[in-house]
Amino acid sequence: MNLKPNKSLGQNFIIDQNMIKKIVDCVSINHENEILEIGAGTGNLTDFLIKKNPKKIYLVEKDKNLTQILRDKFGEKTQVFNEDILKFSKSNLLTNNSIIFGNLPYNISSQILTKFIYHSEIFKFKMLVFMFQKELADRIIAQTNSSNYGRLSIISRWKFNIRKAFDINPNCFFPKPKIKSTLLIFTHKNKIFKFHNPQTLEKVTRIFFNQRRKKIKKQFNSLFYKNLEISNKLNIDLNLRPQNLTPEHYFNLAQELEKL
To answer: Residue 80 pairs with which residues in a beta bridge?
Structure first.
């Protein structure tokens, strides 16, 4: 490959054909689905997506040179947007049948995920099929009481069911990253906790996990002014540590904070 990846954009192109097929085959795609691919790069994944014959394929690519390469390569088979996905202006093109694929740039992958969490009403979609650095993916899917469990684990589970598909070896990419990647699939939960302001959940998790090794009594008191009625109501032991509380505990805490 003669094209030189742009380090500042966190570009790592997936090049292993067998792995690309495995990624595309891990979800069901038909003529009713619109596909949005984030960071389409040189179109290696796009090639396989086209073979699935979806209703429409939209490609979002921030790199201007790659945008032109994609337009030349695919013509009218795809619609290409030279935009930053964090500022994407065409979310109205998506529907509840849209499937969003992304070999996400390592440097902004958590920002992209949280954008889809907090703005899922604007970004309509059926599912997300995202590649992350394995270290970040492990944090996203971490369970309560594990060392990787934290704010991202909780916020991700607010709206989504998350399934780990498989790990991807570094030699499947160019340039070859130093660590493995992981493919995660996100689908909507049937019921979610409602907040007047989603940033309340952000605030609660930030305050608790800023001192993740300490017992939660101090953090709880700073939020609820020693209101033990709330801890009793939610059956929360204030001698626990942040990683001992379930996502549902944090959702309930955020709801209680909004009532004050």
So the answer is: 59
What number of other Cβ atoms are within 10 A of residue 91's Cβ?
14
CA triplet 159, 97, 202: central angle to 5 degrees? 20
151-198 residue pLDDT tens: 999 999 999 999 999 999 999 999 899 999 999 999 999 999 999 998
pTM of the model: 0.94
Residue 236, C-beta contacts closer than 8 angstroms, at least 6 positions apart: 216, 220, 245, 249, 253
pLDDT tens per residue, range 92-101: 999 999 999 9
Report the alpha-carbon distance of residue 24 to residue 208 in Å, rounded.
Answer: 38
Angle between helices 151-159 and 109-118 (to 10 degrees): 40
Which residue segments constitute the domains of the chain, with CATH numbers given? 10-188 (3.40.50.150), 199-259 (1.10.8.100)
Q: Between 224 and 227, name the one with better pLDDT.
A: 224
Cα–Cα distance for residue pair 241/191, rounded to 1 Å: 27
Which candidate, 38, 35, 13, places its Cα nearest to that of 127? 35
Of 186, 205, 195, 215, nearest in space to 256 by CA: 195
What is the spatial distance between Cα 218 and Cα 55, in angstroms, rounded to a whole number?
53
As a whole number of angstroms, the distance between CA 207 and CA 199 comes to 12
